[in-house]
Amino acid sequence: MKVLDRATARTWLGTALDEARAGLAEGGLPIGAALYGPDGELLGRGHNRRVQDGDPSLHAETAAFRAAGRQRSYRGTTMVTTLSPCWYCSGLVRQFGISRVVIGEAETFHGGHDWLAGLGVEIVLLDDPECAALMRDFVDRHPELWHEDIGEPPA
Description:
The chain has a five-stranded mixed sheet. The chain is 45% helix and 17% strand. Strand 3 (78-83), helix 4 (87-96) and strand 4 (100-105) form a beta-alpha-beta unit. The protein is an alpha/beta fold.
């Protein structure tokens, strides 16, 4: 797998950010994702639709994965997400052998990316201020939806 430069990672994060904004505009959580092939081709993109579809499993990474359709192999692919992947989505990355995860931010929520790194998945954490601001604002405005999404009772 070739090295991912920061400029490409940021460009790919732009796709996920567009999805996050779409999710927010639909009344859902502002989390977006995209799956890129080993050659840099966009395979699939999506956003969290848990609220819109009433489906607790439809996280952004799951939506992007489903949109990519069946692949013979996921080796060399990159999952790009605006927020550190939860345990459910980290399991998806592990189960299907996705090689790299680009994360917009992990300050709002520190999911399973350390676990993935320990298993040999390349993690690229961008600490993107727009991703962090989008999530912070959402959590402040909709704490009940946020806590429901991450499976934790409100503090």
